[in-house]
Structures are given as C-alpha cells and as structure tokens.
Amino acid sequence: METLQLFVVLLSVCSLSYSKECQPYLMENIDFPGTDITFLYSPDVKHCQYLCTQHPSCLFFTFIRQDWTTDNRNFYCYLKSTPTGQPNVQTPLLGVTSGFSLKTCNLNSKPCLSQVYQNIDFYGSDYRFLFTSSSDECQTFCSKDPNCHFFTFINDAYTPEKYRYKCHLKYSWSIPRTLIVKKEVGIVSGFSEQLQMSPYLEPACQRKLFANTNIPGNNLETLPAAGAEHCHALCSAHPTCTYFTYNNNDFNCYLKKNPNEMVKEAKVGVTSGIPSRFCQLDNDWLKVDYDGVHFQGSDIRNVTMENADKCRKACTADRQCQFYTYFKDSHSNSDYRGLCFMKSVITISAPPKVSKLNNVVSPHWITCFFWGLCFMKSVITMWAPPIVSKLNNVVSGFPLKSKC
C-alpha cells in the first residue's frame, strides 16, 4: 500500500511538473519586465538559463548582455515568476536576452560549463593563487583541482604589471545548502538520501568531532545546518575550511580558517570538528529525521503524505528534491498538517560577481593537454625532506603515490 501511494504521488508530481511544454529557445532583444524574484550574476545567457532552471521558483528570466550600454547592469540575470508561468509583458529592448526555465525539459545531467570569456572578470571566491605562463595552463590547474569551479587569468598586457600571469582559482558551492533552519514544534525535516555530498572515494572517512567544545575566532563563513554532521560535510566540501564549530541551539555552522593552529575551549551546547579529505564521507545523517526543525523556503512543490517517513522517501525518489519539511498532525496550523514540502537550491557553479575587465580570461574549468619540446635531462627525483629531526607526538611520512 505504501509503495502504491508513493507511486501515485510521484505520478501526480510528474504530471504537474511536465504538463507544460518545454521551451528551450532564447528571445534576443526581448525583455520580460517586472515579476522579479531576484537577480544573480551570469557570464552568458545559457548560464543564466541554468540558474533559472535550478532556482525553485524561477519560471523565466531576462539576461542583460555584455553589449548593454544603458547602465552598468551587464551580466545581471533576473530570475522571474508568475502564477501562469508566462511573462505578463514582452517588450523589445536592445542588449537583453530572455527565455524560460528548462524545468519542464526533463534534463538528465548537469550542464557542461566550458565557455571561455575574454575581458570578463569573475570577481571573488578565490581560494588559491599561482602564476602560470598562459591561460591554458591556468585552465589545466583548475581542471585537475576538484575544488576549482572557475578561474580568472591575468594576461601579459594587464596593468599594473606585477599582477600579470596571475591565475586565480575560485570555488563555488556545488552541494545543497539549507538556506534557513529554525526550531518549530510539529515539524520534521530531512534530506534526500540520494544527495551526493562528495565524490565517491575510498577508504571511508573517520569523522572527528569534539563534543561540548568551541574553537573561537577565525570565522570563514557562517551557514545554517541541521546538525554537527551536516556542518562537518559543509566544512569538508570547502577548500579552505580547516575546522568548524556548530551551535546546537541556533543551528549555526561556523566554518573556520587557520592552518597554523587550533585552540579549543570547553563550551556546553556546541560541537567542533575537523573536515575529512580524500575519503568517503559517512552520509548516515542524510537518513535522520530532524524533529522540531523547519527548513524554511526553497519549496519546489508540496504533496499530502501520511507521515514524515513517506515524505522522506518521496523526496529521495524525486530527482529534483534535495531536502524536505513535513508538517505533522500535531502542528498548530491545521491547514498545513500532512503536507510534505519538497525543496531545492541552486548548485550550479556561479561567480558572486561578473564584470568587464580588460586583459583577463575567465572560463569555467576545462581539461587541456599541452605539447612542446622534449629536453632529456636527469636529476635526483627521490623525495627528500630538507630537514629531518626528532619531535615527540608528530607523525611524518610520504604520500601513497605508487607501489614500492
């Protein structure tokens, strides 16, 4: 009976989601004025369309192109919605391109982002800097670094000269984040068990948490999280997070950055920990029902379910659902009782700001290979530390690069 109910719910959801015609086309120099939800930065119109597709409420959009000259809103991606799913007005306007969400197009994979943008800067989100001989080499570094989602390379004509050949590797959140987490009686929230919080790796991680322990200062970013294990996953996904502290009372996850030291202090009600790298995260926390916790907003749809367990299973079976909130029969508002709210957020790589800047190159990651002259030479290649000395309570060694 439970399987039949889940099938009926998913059938109705699919009917609701895909009853409208797929509209992948773009309308150049046409504006959809008004009905804005928000705006985000995009380097081009296709990226803007993907942002609209992943936003839980966006149904159509207007993108302000690089050739727009009326003001400085170049690269603005306006996400929009109406009850009918269609823009109220369509007007001719030079320098913009409009289009529709691809939610009804039944896309099966993440978009491939490989476009190169000349004289466009992806401002912010830097986590590593290095100097490379060309933008192609900068691309290679980004492509081989799993944390790199886009980059900016400064060419040999940039002023001031001291920044030439600088390669900025940049990070963007690619895992779902609950935007608002609150306490509320009569509510259960949780996650889809299909969430991919990290690439599959071996061996399994040994999670390191410190109960009733605070690590003060050095805050990198503060995010809402359902629990300490969720906070651990967020820290593990961020390339510069060195440790974290989670407050059990207000659901705040404090990502911290200090690679030099970690000073701990006793504090009741908080949990701290160290991120896990190069191993498979334990995602058992995805199967937990968080009673009395409300994941507010980011709704993509709601359906009536008998209990929170069936709501979680419905979210897990729905490829668009990342997390959910279920209103129990004990909730104070009878209008919401039994409703399962399925939720989703944007996970596509998105620069925090896009702007014009001469003599820079800003593509998304691309894998490149290079050919050149071959000079046959020989030097000592066995790894050798510069100094070796005794020191209690430390462990040193070599990486597992190859078999001996």
TrEMBL record:
<dbReference type="InterPro" id="IPR000177">
    <property type="entry name" value="Apple"/>
</dbReference>
<feature type="domain" description="Apple">
    <location>
        <begin position="22"/>
        <end position="105"/>
    </location>
</feature>
<dbReference type="GO" id="GO:0006508">
    <property type="term" value="P:proteolysis"/>
</dbReference>
<feature type="domain" description="Apple">
    <location>
        <begin position="112"/>
        <end position="185"/>
    </location>
</feature>
<feature type="domain" description="Apple">
    <location>
        <begin position="205"/>
        <end position="279"/>
    </location>
</feature>
<feature type="signal peptide">
    <location>
        <begin position="1"/>
        <end position="19"/>
    </location>
</feature>
<keyword id="KW-0677">Repeat</keyword>
<keyword id="KW-1015">Disulfide bond</keyword>
<keyword id="KW-0732">Signal</keyword>
<protein>
    <submittedName>
        <fullName>Coagulation factor XI-like</fullName>
    </submittedName>
</protein>
<dbReference type="InterPro" id="IPR003609">
    <property type="entry name" value="Pan_app"/>
</dbReference>
<dbReference type="GO" id="GO:0005576">
    <property type="term" value="C:extracellular region"/>
</dbReference>
<dbReference type="Pfam" id="PF00024">
    <property type="entry name" value="PAN_1"/>
</dbReference>
<dbReference type="Pfam" id="PF14295">
    <property type="entry name" value="PAN_4"/>
</dbReference>
